[in-house]
Amino acid sequence: MDTPQRVAIITGGSRGIGRESAERLATDGYAVVVNYAGNKADADSTVAAITAKGGDAIAVQADVADETAVAALFDTAERTYGGIDVVVHAAGIMPVSPLVDLDLDLLDRIIRTNLRGTFVVNQQAARRLRPGGAIVNVSSSISRFARPGYTAYAASKGGVEAITLILARELRGRDITVNVVAPGPTATGLFFDGKDEATVSRIAAEPPLERLGTPQDIAEIIAFLAGPARWINGQVLYANGGAI
Question: What is the structure's pLDDT at 218?
Fold first, then answer.
């Protein structure tokens, strides 16, 4: 009998780690649903890159913190491809400010997108993934770095890790793995935004490998957790080149 095609939803799939993960899973034969918040052009570009190589992908807009929109995203994936096997939750925002100066409205936006968004996406994933599936949430090594200016972002990502570790245990008996990848500094637009060359060079020199991570580095780990890594479950994988 033919093995059914595996299907993956990638939130934040239009740019950075999300886009690279979408393209990487497509090379493994997944049908990919590229979720985006507002930049349709980038999402369409991701889909075009996948289909140009013979892959199968669609783009679907949804605010990850809006439960109605996320339910519709999952509905579209099921209607188009017949089911869902993998959810990679890479959507997030990273404003930087010292705690003493952080506007509380911005704090609310960070928590809404990064923490509530994870909860909403994981809730739908837990309800809908087929046996043999995987949930991979993207957190950050920033909680270990304890870098000044990242209190709100680190707090939100600590919550992502808590959600992941508990959900892995709540899904006992479902044959679904739930893990976190926690990248260190990675060469994406999100990382470079607001940093001068000297700051980038200093951070890049911190790991023993003496470079920034790349989206490809992280996508390889995500692809491993999405497919062959069935005995890794309820774990946080720090992917930062040995900086901590």
Answer: 96
- Residue 150 forms part of a structural domain: yes
194 domain-assigned:
no
Q: CA–CA distance from 54 to each of 23, 112, 163 (Å)?
A: 11, 36, 35
How far apart CA 235 and CA 95 sit, in angstroms, is: 26
Residue ranges in the chain whose pLDDT is less than 50: 1
Number of independent structural domains in the chain: 1
Sheet with 86-89, edge to edge strand ranges: 56-61, 31-36, 7-11, 86-89, 134-138, 177-183, 236-239
The tokens describing 151, both together, are 């209190």
Chain-centroid distance, C-alpha 129: 17
* Domain span holding position 95: 7-184+218-239
Give CA angle at 92 (58, 26), nearest 5°. 30
CATH code of residue 222 = 3.40.50.720
Q: What is the pLDDT of residues 48-95, one digit of tens each?
A: 999 999 999 999 999 999 999 999 999 999 999 999 999 999 999 999
> Catalytic positions, please?
153
